[in-house]
Write a structure and sequence with these properties.
The complex is a heterodimer of chains A (about 160) and B (about 120). Chain A has about 160 residues and is α+β, with helices and mostly antiparallel strands. Helix content of chain A is about 20%, strand content about 40%. Chain A has four helices and eight strands, in the order E-E-H-H-E-E-E-E-E-E-H-H. Chain A has an eight-stranded antiparallel β-sheet with strand order 1-2-8-7-6-5-4-3, with helices on one face. In chain A, strand 1 and strand 2 form a beta hairpin. Chain A is globular and about 45 Å long. A three-stranded antiparallel β-sheet of chain B has the order 1-3-2. Chain B has about 120 residues and is mainly alpha-helical. At the A-B interface, strand 1, strand 2, helix 1, helix 2 and helix 4 of A face helix 1, helix 2 and helix 5 of B.
């Protein structure tokens, strides 16, 4: 099975992430909407962050709140609300921690032969907001064209 | 606008899909060069090099300026590397996340199977 994660900038305000999971859509939806499951994967160890608490009120108009950080003095909150909830197939939520600059995220699950295609679209209000989103605190690293080649292979389908 | 960006992106990808053009970009990242310099360095005809530079120019990866009889090429305003870097970082985060999701979902699948089996054995 192709387990590749693909990322594509669909427009100057939109980025689309896809991945196929070897499980029915209802299980993926469960992992995305139950807090005790969600917190097991949303912040993998390699991200170097600790998810201290996680509240998900998954219903239209319901809110979610994720608290990061080792202790209450160093806490970062991520929060927003759910705009659309269709069990096993669709979830739309806002990301409001950075005020108006946050994206609206749309998750769709498409099940076929017991496997689920995850398509996640993040739509930012402006190009600037999108550009700022991926950068984090890391220094800009100079990429060689060799690495560029690898990326192009990964993104092969994107070029059209 | 959306369409324009997509077109621009495709043009960028197409431009760097060619080994010579990547070489030209690498060369120009080090120093500006004339079409003649580039043709010599890549052992190509002037016409052939003009075509490659034309593709890079269309994608915004290279700009050219003619002074007298010499056309000088330099790295253009399109920051393809920055865009690729951005995507690469974004992908790293999601890749790690989805790997972790896989493990959670596998566990759910296992429990699900167990539940079904128990249910079945209870049915007379």
């Amino acid at each position: 099975m192709n387990k590749r994660t693909t990322v594509q900038r669909k427009s100057d305000r939109e980025v689309v992430v896809t991945r196929t999971v070897d499980a029915p859509a209802r299980l993926v939806f469960e992992a995305w909407t139950k807090a005790d499951l969600f917190k097991q994967w949303w912040v993998p160890k390699s991200m170097g962050m600790t998810l201290r608490s996680c509240d998900l009120d998954v219903r239209v108009g319901g809110g979610y709140r994720l608290l990061f950080g080792a202790d209450p003095a160093n806490t970062m909150a991520f929060f927003g609300k759910y705009l659309e909830v269709v069990p096993s197939s669709r979830l739309v939520w806002t990301n409001e921690e950075s005020g108006d600059a946050g994206p609206v995220t749309t998750l769709t699950l498409d099940e076929k032969d017991g496997r689920t295609l995850i398509v996640l679209t993040e739509r930012y209000p402006t190009k600037e907001a999108l550009d700022a989103a991926g950068t984090g605190a890391q220094d800009a690293m100079h990429e060689t064209f060799g690495q560029l080649d690898e990326l192009l292979v990964t993104l092969g389908a994107t070029a059209g | 606008m959306v369409q324009h960006h997509q077109t621009h992106f495709n043009a960028s990808f197409a431009a760097v899909a060619d080994a010579t053009r990547r070489g030209v970009l690498e060369q120009l990242a080090r120093a500006d060069a004339s079409i003649t310099d580039l043709a010599d360095r890549f052992d190509m005809t002037l016409t052939g090099m003009k075509k490659h530079v034309g593709v890079l120019e269309l994608a915004g990866l290279v700009t050219t300026e003619k002074v007298g009889r010499v056309r000088t090429c330099r790295i253009g305003p399109c920051r393809l590397e920055e865009e690729m870097e951005w995507i690469s970082r974004y992908r790293e985060v999601w890749d790690a996340r989805f790997d972790a999701l896989d493990r959670v979902v596998d566990e759910l699948k296992r429990k699900d199977k167990l539940r079904r089996r128990q249910k079945k054995s209870r049915t007379p």
